[in-house]
Amino acid sequence: MKLFSMQSLSTFCMSLHLAAQAGISIPEGVEMLAEEETDASHRASINAVAESLKDGSPLVDALRKSGVFPGYMIDMVEVGEKTGNLEDTLLSLSRYYERQESISKSLRSSVTYPAMLLAVLLFVLVLFVVKILPIFNDVYRQLNVQMSAIAVAALHFGEWLAACWIPLLIVIVVLVILAVVGRQKLSAWLGKLFLSGSLGAALVTARFSNILAMTLAAGMEMSEALAMTSRISEDKTLAARIDAAAEEAIKGASFSQCILETGIYSSLYNKMIAIGARTGSLVSVIEEIARRSNEDANDKIEAYIGKIEPTLVIIMSVLVGLLLLSVMLPLAGVMSLL
Questions:
Q1: Band (1; pLDDT cuts 50, 70, 90)
Q2: Which of 188, 216, 212 is nearest to 200 (CA)?
Q3: pTM (predicted TM-score)
């Protein structure tokens, strides 16, 4: 069965939350969702959850049995059922997946748009060396003039492309298929390659804050919240620091001290957390930090895109400009002699 997207997960959790608020039981709410679902695969999955609920299974077991919901969501639903905060947990899950979808869209745009721009620029460059340069070469040959070394090299490259375009096209198609099949591994590799520095730190902080806000809002103990955040973290170094913080929490350290142990937040956020812990508004503070972290990550992604676009345009413009100059300068020399 097809896995649910983050947007679908957000909608699913929000719908169940609204149903529970309206006094509708979870099994009835799931049945209503199945009736309204337009995607056949998703409808079958939701119907499977509804059938399990009819048989008396708790929601967490029904979700786990379906095999299409992420482990994090299942763990959080289990916490919500055990603590009696399932309704609030579903709302927090909906907001969490909505924030994750926003970050994912920004990440996709940071890769997709520059890739499309690069493809167009490369197409223009290939068209120039394959179609236009041979025309200039014929003209120069008739005038008994030799093109520059750069233009000749580009001409030979264009001739090679024209002769080998079928194998090259096959290779490109195969690479595209492999990228689609292994898009998760490719995304992870691209993330390590490009999303480093301040942008990578902003994304890690946003995801950490989202998960931590979720776990605390669900009523989990501090050590349990940190342990679950560590299990879900994709950064092994950060996960190790979170584990150390969880151990300090078990020993009786305050939440602000444990968060300071992770080293993920700035001094301002650490102060906000310390104040929130003293005033009893810790969950609200963490949720506010999560919101700010998401905005910061999105701003950095937009800035990242803003740097990539002009860089690609400049590089390709310089290449095309050099080729044009290498072609036109000999022609200008011929014209000066006439």
A1: low
A2: 188
A3: 0.60
